[in-house]
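Appendix B. Chain record.
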Amino acid sequence: MKIGLVPGSFKPYHAGHDALIRIAADENDVVIVFSSTTDRLRPREIPLYGADMQQIIDKFVKPTLPSNVQMISVGVPVAAVWQELEKSEKAKSKDTFTIYSDDEDILKYKPASLAKYAPKLYAKGQIQLSGVDRNETVNVSGTAMREFIQNGDVEQFISMLPPAMQKNGKKIYNLLLKGSKKTVVKKKPLTSETLLRSYVSYTLKRIS
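Structure tokens predicted for this chain:
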């Protein structure tokens, strides 16, 4: 069989991801999509949680995927690809595997690593790489989607979802927005001791 492997963090899942998966579905007998369950927490960026995205994937993404696509939740998608190849190597698989990603992320799959995890499969040409330019799918990024949420741009966010998911776009947007408010930075209460220390530090700086 021809098997496609598509790793991704999908935070959030957008039309570009969907188009890439559909390309893989057209070119393979079976496609395995590895979706990250980890939280995405970055400074000055809206937080997105793995549990929220998993809920969206189960409810809105999976029902719209081609019948030959299965989506599996994992901690680290790239590591899951290596594990899948390693498992197939040990099973002496006769299948052909193609890893799909955009044309930048596909460079993560170095020949040395492929030869390390699945030396026989790699040597026999049973592992292929397919780097797909965003202009061949939908030119949108996870960064842009997160900015749409952060800036309250609901219409743009929904327009960049896969067509089959757009009817539920507002629900998806609200779920991610609600989840992003889980992170609350708690300020330490000011005590008389804290105020005194601040005053002393300020005074010393003025004297020096």
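Further analysis of this model is presented in Appendix C.
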